[in-house]
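HOLO CASE FILE
Compound: S-adenosylmethionine
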Amino acid sequence: MALIQHKNAQVRFDQQVENSENYVLPFIEATHSINAATTVFEVGCAEGGVLKPFLNRGCNCVGVDLANERIDLANTFLADYVRQNQVTFICQNIYDETFLNQYKGKFDIIILKDVIEHVPNQSDFISYLKNFLAPRGQIFFGFPPWYMPFGGHQQVCEKKLTSKLPYYHIMPRSLYKHFLKAFGESEGMIESLLEVWDTSITIGQFERYIKEAGLTIKHKQHYLINPIYKYKFGLKPRKQLGLIGSIPYLRNFVTTCVYYTVGL
Ligand SMILES: C[S@@+](CC[C@H](N)C(=O)[O-])C[C@H]1O[C@@H](n2cnc3c(N)ncnc32)[C@H](O)[C@@H]1O
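Model generated. Tokens follow.
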């Protein structure tokens, strides 16, 4: 069922700011300093709320997103910082040569929050991100692993049953499509959920891609209850038990979110 943040951009922006201030920034700061000399790049920045706490620290930021209307909102919500040239929001594919030439080696911190699970060919994409890192730069990833109860993002469904039922997204693709259709989901919703199905990522796959890219994990935190579930389900964030996080297959089913910082 659509939540208020799905319809109201201001609510969405405020939630991004609060979550970034309380969870994302402190997590990154555990392994990388954040001050006026720090350059930050967010891929999939949407309304730009994640960057606001970094702007408040004086960082220079760039946010990129493929959705033009979300870039317009970011420019509106953070207009003062945009005017002062402290942040630039761009609607562009980061694979574009002009983008690469302009930002190669420029960023101390790259942020992908709730984005990598939407990106095709993640192994190549993660490797490509290294192009934008300054020496000793780090990349933050936060994402919901595929096998967790709502790993299919099905909470955004229009119907009560399909939006509340956990785990059914892990059925085979064609069955999943028929199931969503049978319970009344629209063609548009089915298409967007199948996109998530196609780009799903597990904890093990992610860690393998990091290794293949020649990156190393600097810091990681697994959550039993994702910090953003406060806004989605009214639940208090909870860290995952260390023992569960170390059991390869099982951890995917009971870990609703993971945070990682990685670097060269
Ligand atoms: C779930 S939203 C997350 C927004 C924000 N990072 C947050 O945490 O609230 C995912 C965003 O990533 C963007 N996105 C997906 N793939 C992308 C890509 N390859 N390059 C840039 N943006 C992308 C989408 O347009 C969308 O705005």
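CASE NOTES: The chain has a mean pLDDT of 95. The beta strands are 39-43, 60-64, 87-90, 107-113, 133-143, 216-225, 238-239, 257-263.
CLOSED: yes
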